[in-house]
């Protein structure tokens, strides 16, 4: 908003076309693609992006050319046969345990040497009741890297962790890139 106010106050000093775009779905990595697909930046000679996290005080505009991290988001569905814990626990295999194991392994992936990296497990849904081995579990997570190479490294290691967790528990996993 500070930039918009300053531009409006100095409009007579500016030349060319000024567009202020507030990106939807920024954190989900889908907003920029929608803006570009809609043609909003087709006639731009220069494009300057901003993030609300930039460390600026009220009324201040700051430029931060670092700390932006590539991201890959994943949705995973684990499935198997449900069973009752009291009467036949051996009849089922637990997608919940596979998803929980994957969550722990994901956060333990060693960082890449190609730059700053992160893994964030944000959602785990599973279970129908206390005494039932669930038939389904859903896990959502993302990996990030300060370079394309670091992000790709983390993504490949994450897929290995998910597949290994599923194999260890004897359940199926369907891994999809989200967004």
Tell me what you see in this structure.
- There is one protein chain.
- The chain has 179 residues and is of the alpha+beta class.
- The protein has 2 domains: 1-67, no CATH class; 70-178, Alpha-Beta Plaits (2-Layer Sandwich).
- 28% of the residues lie in helices and 23% in strands.
- The chain is built from 4 helices and 6 strands.
- The strands form 2 sheets. The chain has a 4-stranded antiparallel β-sheet, with helices on one face. A two-stranded antiparallel sheet has the order 2-4.
- Helix 3 (95-107) runs antiparallel to helix 4 (148-169).
- The longest helix is centred in the C-terminal third of the chain and has 22 residues, at 148-169.
- The protein starts with a helix and ends with a strand.
- The relative contact order is 0.18.
- The mean pLDDT is 84.
């Amino acid at each position: 908003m500070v930039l918009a106010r300053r531009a409006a106050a100095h409009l007579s000093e500016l030349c060319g076309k000024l567009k202020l775009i507030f990106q939807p779905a920024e954190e989900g990595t889908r907003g920029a693609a929608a803006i570009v697909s809609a043609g909003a930046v087709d006639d731009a000679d220069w494009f300057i992006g901003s993030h609300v996290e930039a460390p600026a005080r009220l009324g201040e505009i700051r430029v931060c050319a670092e700390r932006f991290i590539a991201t890959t988001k994943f949705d995973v569905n684990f499935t198997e046969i449900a069973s009752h814990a009291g009467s036949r626990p051996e009849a089922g295999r637990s997608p919940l345990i596979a998803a929980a194991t994957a969550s722990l392994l994901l956060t333990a992936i060693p960082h890449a040497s190609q730059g700053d990296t992160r893994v964030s497990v944000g959602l785990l849904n599973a279970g129908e009741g206390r005494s039932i081995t669930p038939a389904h579990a859903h896990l959502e997570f993302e990996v990030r890297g300060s370079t394309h190479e670091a992000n790709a490294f983390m993504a490949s290691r994450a897929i290995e962790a998910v597949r290994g967790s599923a194999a260890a528990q004897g359940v199926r996993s369907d891994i999809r890139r989200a967004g």
